[in-house]
Amino acid sequence: MELLGRRTQVIKLFLVLVVVGLLRGAESRTTMKFESLEYTAISCRAHSASLTEFGGVGDGKSSNTKAFQAAISQLSQYASEGGAQLFVPAGKWLTGSFNLISHFTLYLHKDAVLLASQDVNEWPVLKPLPSYGRGRDAAAGRFSSLIFGTNLTDVIVTGDNGTIDGQGEFWWQQFHKKKLKYTRPYLIEIMFSTDIQISNLTLRDSPSWNVHPVYSSNILVQGITVIAPITSPNTDGINPDSCTNTRIEDCYIVSGDDCVAVKSGWDEYGIAFGRPTKQLVIRRLTCISPYSATIALGSEMSGGIQDVRAEDIVAINTESGIRIKTAVGRGGYVKDIYVRRMTMHTMKWVFKMNGDYGSHADGKYDKNAVPEIKGINYRDMVADNVTIAARLEGIADHPFTGICISNVTIGLAAKAKKQPWTCTDIEGITSGVTPSPCDLLPDQGPKATACNFPADDLPIDLVELKQCTYRMSYL
Care to name a GO molecular-function term for this sequence (predicted)? Predict the structure, then answer.
């Protein structure tokens, strides 16, 4: 009987241990999370990890700067083994600036929010860009962007429309009060790099520019939503700067500045650096910016801008459709620009060109550095509720040439200016344009063939995306 009692006690103890183990296992399973990720990208990765594995806390209060830095540092070991992906789960992830690496993907869950820190100590200070010679806000250096990278290859920042929130109000106030020693940070800046993808994200309230690829090539910016107050300072949407072979498509931008601003350096610094922006495609862009342009070329264009192709553009309550900004002292050129199938509602100007745009880097600019503006082609456009059809002002003795406008109908607002076109120091032709353009743009008749859009594909249009699939498990 005693032996039987002991056996019964052992069995009971065993059963208790089994139940406890099952409960602990169930508890463990409830804390483990699983995500299935599917997206298209220029590259898929062989390795993947979650920010939580490196101490990340998504409570919106804890700083995750060190967690991002640790994760990216650890994942760099896989660069030569198929690359790595860092997954940011649902949550609010407060962070300062951090740097990306080559052969790397940063992926944001649809309910993930990166919150930019308002602690300036979490923003390293960088030297001014060599093609600018100084910062945009202050003559000294600039704060590093929230997501930054330089001298990289094969970099992807993407997600399922996750959010990057720049919490820009803090920076805008400092800017307006003239208290900034350095230029405000951008949300994403990648420089001296190649094979870049920035896609399927929402960018909110950037301190300044939102997306800034600079001195880079083979760039895809796709499915980006940019939202900022229309009075916020310098919150440009996407600014390709001294870049080659870039494609911007399917983006929606509401901002306090230009929705897309094409750049290539500032005055003598841009001339000396000598790196143009060329082979740029912009398509299926929607823009709202009551005080700025849908697409701006310049004003920092001293390295040159060439072969820009924009099509299927919608502008709503935006100051201007296509704008060229330049001045004596810029040097450089803007040429071979093609825009077609643009729809505009409630505009101040449809077309605007300025040859007297000031804002020089310093007083050292070359007063003999006259920019060359030629080969500007606009066709197949319609606009309504427009105050002024066009203001086209070149440079005395250096006119803007080769302007071609075809099949454009502009409906003027009830309180439109009596003179819908203002033209000085320009040369070109038109065909089928309403209202009738200025004498410097003579009408060639409705049957004239002009302003043709290029039929060839640029190399960036031939990039084939891969279908990437991951099964993520994380705490």
Answer: polygalacturonase activity
